[in-house]
Design brief:
It is a single chain. The chain is an alpha/beta fold. It folds into two domains: about 1-180, Leucine Aminopeptidase, subunit E, domain 1 (3-Layer(aba) Sandwich); about 200-500, Zn peptidases (Aminopeptidase, 3-Layer(aba) Sandwich), CATH 3.40.630. It is built from 15 helices and 20 strands. The chain has helices at about 30-40, 45-50, 85-105, 125-135, 170-195, 200-215, 225-230, 235-240, 295-310, 355-365, 380-385, 400-410, 445-455, 490-495, 500; strands at about 1-5, 20-25, 60-65, 75-80, 110, 155-160, 220, 245-255, 260-265, 270-275, 315-325, 335, 345, 370-375, 390-395, 415, 435, 460-465, 470, 480-485. The chain is elongated. The two termini are about 35 Å apart. About 50% of the residues are buried.
Amino acid sequence: MKVTLQRGRLEDFATEAIVAFHFEGDEKLLRDEEAMDKASGGLISEVVQSGDFQGELYQASLIYTKGTILGKRILLMGLGKRGDFHLDKWRGAVSKAARILRDKGVKDFSLSPYLRGERKISLEDFSQGLVEGIYLGLYQFTEFKTEERENIKEVEQVHLVTPDGKKIFRIQKAVDVAEIISRAVYLARDLVSRPANRKTPSMLAQMAKDVAKNNALRWEVFNMDKMRELGMGALLAVASGSREPPKFIILEYKPPKKSLDTVVVIGKAITFDSGGLSLKPSENMDKMKHDMGGGAAAIGIIQAASQLKLPLHLVALIPATENLPSGSAYRPGDILTSLSGKTIEVISTDAEGRLILADALAYSQRIKPKAIIDLATLTGACIIALGNNVTGMMGNDEELKARVRRAADRTGEKVWELPLWEEYEEQIRSEVADIKNVGGRPAGTITGGVFLKKFVGEYPWVHLDIAGPVWADKDKPYVPKGATGVGVRLVVQLLREWNLSS
């Protein structure tokens, strides 16, 4: 799909469809809507006045223009009540419009990149949100479809049209940012969507190498010998049940400018999680291919950071392994020695994500970062606590958590903080080791966060449990069913605002 920006009037543009927007309950048409209505002889006002279209959020009405204007169709899309309108509803509305037109077989359509006369949202946010909504809503994972590929419908061209030539430069910059971020989300979605036999740790390392090569990133991978040399006993234990060797993937983006803040992003990458000897139920085990959603997000984040040329030194650490049962697998009751030197009693081999993150967090301290952010599908308990649409947040630094919340508000990727009070530490205290990897059913998400905190040291750190939103079981406004790429837009927004907030 190609997105182009040009000066002109929508009603004068020859295209298969033009998208117009309307607020619920508004008798007065929006400026672009009104201009098209006049040019088409009142087609839009006729539909609005008939009562068939009220402008409710995501309500749509397709109008055939019958030659009154050059566009063959007008898709009227509802924005809901004006007082409730915000940036995420804008993303959702343009996404819904794009999907409706695609499903009708429309290959090109036109729309304004912003609502003329509306000042509740900035021009840049309007334009970026629109392009993100279109790209993210039109995502399809078709890599392994071999039959009837000719029936897969795709939009080929989107025309952004504005009559104000003075705004084109600002709009184009926002469009460029949106395309970079959307491609990074696509990358993360593709990685999560692939089956485990097509993204083993070795394959994931190669994919990361390709991203590094295409974006001038430094790439390094530790093999098992290097992990043993370093003392990554927790990661090696999780990998011990699989024939696939683990990989510790390092990607580094470092602009030439000196004295930049260093941020480490860590992504859990269990490329398939059976639960190990603490075997999961067979129902829904096929979805455990998405247990590397944190690692996928980390790769997408550093790709976007490089393409956006952010003034930061960014390091992505991605511990990658399978978690499988076998005669060589680690067992409940085993005691592991982690990279930090702390010993860990294994209560459940299905609490493996925190084990591989423990070694990654300990390694990140060697980089001496200004902040550490980890993303992980860590606990099913987070879904019980917060549902499928919200990321659980825990951390040891109020400023860093505030940065995450601000980024969440801008991107619509919801986060909710859970506490890390000292009382929870008692649940993971071991009688035979320094710490145990499970603290029982109560506060399961929190005790997972408390466990991770033990390996952070004094560095500012935030943990994002993305177990709920990593996968969508049904279509959402700009998130089609399947892998969501959650965390990419959130962390990229945080990094874009880094120097503004410091």
